[in-house]
Amino acid sequence: MTTLLSAEGLHKSFGKTSALDGAGIAIREGEVVAIMGPSGSGKSTLLHCLAGILPPDSGTVTYRGQDLTAMTDNARSELRRTEFGFVFQFGQLVPELTCLENVALPLRLSGMKRKDAERASRDWMERLEVDTVADQRPGETSGGQGQRVAVARALVTAPKVVFADEPTGALDSLNGERVMHLLTTAARETGAAVVLVTHEARVAAYSDREVVVRDGRSRDVEFVR
Amino acid sequence: MVCIVLLMSIGHALLGLLEGGPRHGYDLKRAYDERFGQDRPLHYGQVYSTLSRLLKNGLVSEAGVEAGDGPERKRYAITDAGVTDVERWLGTPEKPEPYLQNTLYAKVVLALLSGRSATEVLDTQRAAHLRAMRDLTRRKVDGDLADQLICDFALFHLEADLRWLELTAARLDALAEEVAR
Amino acid sequence: MRRVLSDLALGVRLAVGGSRKSWVRLALQGAGIGMCVAVLLLAASIPTAFGNRDLRDDAREVVEEGTGPAPLLVENGSVAFRSDYVRGEYVRALVSDAPKPPGVDRLPGDGEIIVSPHLADLLASPEGVLLRPRFPQKVIGTFAPEGMDGPLDLRFLAGDATIQPNDGNQAHGFGKEGSGGGLPTVLLMLSIVGAVVLLFPVLVFVSVATRLAAAQRDRRLAALRLVGAGASRVRLIASGEALAGAVVGLLIGFGLMFAIRPLADDIPLPEVATFPSDLTPTLPLTLVVIVSVPVLAVLTSVFAMRRTIVEPLGVVREQKPVRRRLWWRVIPALGGVALLGSQAGKFANGSKAESWPVIGGVVLLMFAVPALLPWLVERVVHQVRGATPALQLAVRRLQLDAGTAARVVGGVAVVLAGTVTLQMTLASVENEVRAEDQRERDNPSLSVTVNETTPLPELPGVLAGTQGVRRVETLRSTYATTQDNDHTSVSVGTCAALELVVRIADCADGRTYLVPSGNGVGDPKAGDTLTFAKTGGTWTVPAVERANGNVFGLYATPAAAAGLDLTGSHTELQAEVDTSRPDVVEHVRNALAPYSWRVHTIFYGEDSTSEIEQVFLAVRRALYAAALLTLLLAGASLLVVGMEQVRERRRPLAAMAASGVPRRTLALSLVWQNGIPLVISTVVSVGTGILLGVLVTKAFDAEVHYDWTGIGVVTGISVGLVLLVTALTLPSLRRATGALGLRTE
Lengths: 225, 181, 745
Fold this sequence. Notes:
The structure holds three protein chains of three kinds.
Chain A: E1 3-14, E2 17-28, E3 32-36, H1 43-50, E4 58-63, E5 66-67, H2 73-83, E6 84-87, H3 99-109, H4 114-127, H5 143-155, E7 161-165, H6 173-190, E8 193-197, H7 201-204, E9 209-214, E10 217-220
Parallel strand pairs in A: 3-8, 3-9, 6-7, 7-8
Antiparallel strand pairs in A: 1-2, 1-4, 4-5, 9-10
Helix pairs in contact in A: 3-4, 3-5, 4-5, 5-6
Chain B: H1 2-18, E1 23-24, H2 25-37, H3 44-56, E2 60-65, E3 74-78, H4 80-91, H5 101-113, H6 118-142, H7 145-170, H8 172-180
Antiparallel strand pairs in B: 1-3, 2-3
Helix pairs in contact in B: 1-3, 1-5, 2-3, 5-6, 6-7
Chain C: H1 2-15, H2 20-60, E1 62-63, E2 72-76, E3 79-81, E4 84-93, E5 112-115, H3 117-124, E6 138-142, E7 155-159, E8 170-171, E9 173-174, H4 185-209, H5 214-226, H6 231-260, H7 283-304, E10 308-311, E11 314-317, H8 327-344, H9 355-383, H10 389-400, H11 402-442, E12 445-450, H12 459-464, E13 469-481, E14 487-492, H13 495-501, E15 502-503, E16 512-515, E17 529-532, E18 538-540, E19 544-546, E20 548-549, E21 553-556, E22 570-577, H14 584-591, E23 599-604, H15 609-648, H16 650-658, H17 663-699, H18 708-737
Parallel strand pairs in C: 4-7, 5-6, 14-21, 16-19
Antiparallel strand pairs in C: 1-9, 2-4, 2-8, 3-4, 5-7, 10-11, 12-22, 12-23, 13-14, 13-17, 13-22, 15-20, 16-21, 17-18
Helix pairs in contact in C: 1-6, 2-4, 2-6, 2-7, 4-9, 4-11, 4-15, 5-6, 6-7, 8-9, 8-17, 9-10, 9-11, 9-17, 10-17, 11-15, 11-17, 11-18, 15-18, 17-18
Protein name (chain C): FtsX-like permease family protein
Main location (chain C): membrane
Pfam families (chain C): FtsX (PF02687)
């Protein structure tokens, strides 16, 4: 399988504290990779650099042959909007929009008509079993429902990579497992790769392999498949 | 089963201790108790029966006898075969299952004592644990509720092990300092 | 009760809680509220300022009645100088301890004069050169403030031994019981409208100030809930925090008030310039300010928390807002229109508009703006579905909480509406004044009235001999009342004389002319019977022709006035002057200076365009300054709310930016979010302002005049303000949407 997204020799500091110190990683098409490590190890920073949210101080990030670090901010925004999907721990849904509108937002930003965008979004919400809360606002749903709405929003643009940063961090075991199950199943069905940052082994167990980040350095622990 | 594991690890533990240089059986017991014995010191009988088994398998050799009688006067040294055995033991992850911290702990300490990479030991174990968890997760996802409950039980225990592995990994530096003393 | 107090105290304690942040917040609150308090206190001083003027006026009044021979003779010697008016009296003491008017140490003797400081300045200045010949006396002192209306009063008191006793100049003393003129209605109305206009930004700012660092406060309150404080007690504690800000604001406000008070006598308008000591808030109004500001602060903070439930583990906001109801929101608007409308027709049937319904109507209409705005914004926003994502984000946000934005923008709207109203009133008044001025200049004439008691047969000759005087005619004038008890003047003179005061082309002996009054009320008609006050005789008004002139009244040619008893009438010399000579009138007045109090000159045709411009420019500037200040206050409120919103929604904003939502979309949604309420409020407030302006001018029976430039400027400023506020919010949006926004602190 071909490498989709890779990073080499990433360095990133916030003030005096160094978050990444020569980390590297390679994501292949369609695989689910868990990035693990103790808190403060730099795993979220690695995800942010990989996704082009944060420019690294040095090192390269390559997505399908393009160097992300050499792209403009706008080009990276565009890439994130069209090729990537994101699920964060919490607070990613716009509280004023209904769940359906939240899911439809990325499609509408890409210029799709409201009706078409909302129809496609409704399909995804059904798949993630949250079509019942389509017309409610995020504040009126449970945490698990909210995260599944976020997953639907991440997947609705048919992204090549879904970045999930502690997607179950604010959920109990049962809801967390449900989100992970639906996320990985849907990603495997659509062929999207998933980069999953988590510190929970049971969540990481949904992955194909894991990468451990320690003190800003990553190491592939295992390669299966 | 537990007993055998213990026995197995005592053999490897003694071998690991001998890597630092030949010792008397009595010294070995003292070193073992200091490092791993905690609330359960070894019996002399256990030491000598293990040593004789290692001798029989060619992993240790007698390195001279001091004046006097009795087995406690013999000095033992590790053979090349013994070193290889220790190496293989450290490099092989334990089968992920409950209550193996004694063995894992022994492995980490011995790796540190012998100047090998303790992180390697921990990561190897970690990978094995995660593989097991991944299999269980797959079984759980495909199975019925009973499967799910049984798998979850195992998953939670394995997760606890993993946490211990992580915590130990985070404390390796402190442990190395203590072992070196 | 004791627990209530201790809860409030705890709130105060939390507000001043030591950390630098809380001090900054308290200072901001205090400064904002302080500014408002200072303005309110100034408004509360207006009654004192004008009341004191009245009191001093009354204290100066001559007491004519008394027993025995009068100890003092007083003759009015007020004289015009260009467009200024120098008030003063000539006196002659008949006894050594004659009574003296307030503000002077002793009565001036013959050839001595006491002047006001401003008159002394004017006489000493190059501008006063032409005034000096009229005051040749020796200056022996200046008036103390109690003898003057204000610091810019032009006033004198001169001694003249030639005054002979007659019926009208006897003085037994000075000072009358206050007739209680009070504040002129228009001024009262303007100050009340001004106060209402100012009060809304205060209200808005106070409620916004209590929201400063609301998230922080909510966390504190949640912590209090966690240790067992009940929901109502938490509200009390929050009120205590608001109270602290209000009290600090009161202190700052009083400080500011006393700091700016000394500037009152530097105001360049004599009518407005006030002694600083007169600028003292009245006790009742001061008490109202002292009580109402903290109460307002507490009420708004409680009101603002109405839909916020502080739970032990955080703050919950109700998700589904209640639909706003229209019915009570239209009551002020309808009431205001009804009240003002009821007064509009009053002038037509001759009665006067009552001031209280007018004031009430204005205030009610002002209330209507902030009452209607939230409802209107909500209605409009509900219709919009959001064509673009940016618009959708903004609209959804407004749908969820239209109230906050509408309240703040409502503050701007009230200022806008009030300013538009004041501008229109001002424009209408200015228009009228200018028209009057123009009318006079079209028909320039110098009229010299001779004191009835002193025959001055040589005067016409003196006058005619003065340079710049073309010819001199004589008019006889007297006063009469109609049967409807309206007063009118009746002047009799030859066509040559009449032509100088009335614009008539084809005068012929035997005709009678009428110069109508401004509003046409009380004009005598042909056939009316006039009764003359001096003689008690009557005269039937013949057929009259309407004509333009400077002074309202009847003008009759000798043949038409046959049978009219002119006993007791006074002589008016009408002079035609060459207005092309600069200051010709002042030269004429100087020529008449030796007659001092014996003659009074009135010149119609002084070109006072520049003075009018100056006065209205000053008033307009003051209006703009006040409007700008309040708009800035509202802008600051908007900024606080905007920043708060960005901070509150940091996570979703950062997450959106991370998932590739262009920052432009987010910024645009901010512009929409402020812009939609702004456009609505601008439309509403300009509309209300114009409606109010029309109704007010109608109620005072002036011609409606639209000040479009002024309306445009103020509207432009408020639109610019919202754009500026949005622009200022962008950096914090940038910070929030940066990758660091995703990091949990």
